[in-house]
Specification:
single chain; 138 residues; Cytochrome Bc1 Complex, Chain D, domain 2; 2 strands; 54% helix; elongated
């Protein structure tokens, strides 16, 4: 009997804690956790488990200032790929990144994950944000 009451109280406490989270916090957690899985299956092989990149071949994803500066371009890069020279954290990279083949929501999830991992703190990027960015791609 006591065990059932304790379990019920624990469940109610957990429900209360969860219900106290803001919609923004819940949205962020959903995008971030889904983005982690998409990153692992589509991006990690080249950019590394910790976003460290690969020497002079593949740029790191750890430079917050570059990510912030190009945050609205990231969806276009993921959607269309990237060819030619780019500079990240003061280093030049001259290679090609193929199009990721992701849906707009998956792009939003990955950008949210990368933008808040590896020392970055850029907040949530929604599917709507990605839709706007993709309409502006050159």
């Amino acid at each position: 009997m006591k065990t059932g009451i304790i379990a019920c109280i624990c469940f109610l406490l957990l429900a209360l804690i969860y219900s106290c989270q803001s919609d923004t916090s819940i949205e962020f957690k959903q995008y971030y956790s889904a983005g982690s899985l998409v990153y692992q299956s589509h991006c990690q092989n080249c950019h590394g488990a910790k976003g460290e990149g690969l020497a002079a071949l593949i740029p790191p994803l750890t430079d917050t200032s570059s990510l912030k500066k190009h945050q609205t371009k990231l969806p276009c890069i993921m959607q269309n790929g990237l060819k030619g020279k780019t500079t990240i954290a003061g280093k030049d990279f001259d290679g090609a990144m193929p199009a990721a083949g992701l849906t707009p929501i998956e792009i939003a999830q990955v950008v949210t994950y990368v933008g808040n991992s590896f020392g970055n703190k850029l907040g949530v990027v929604t599917g709507d944000d990605v839709g706007v960015a993709l309409r502006k791609c050159n």
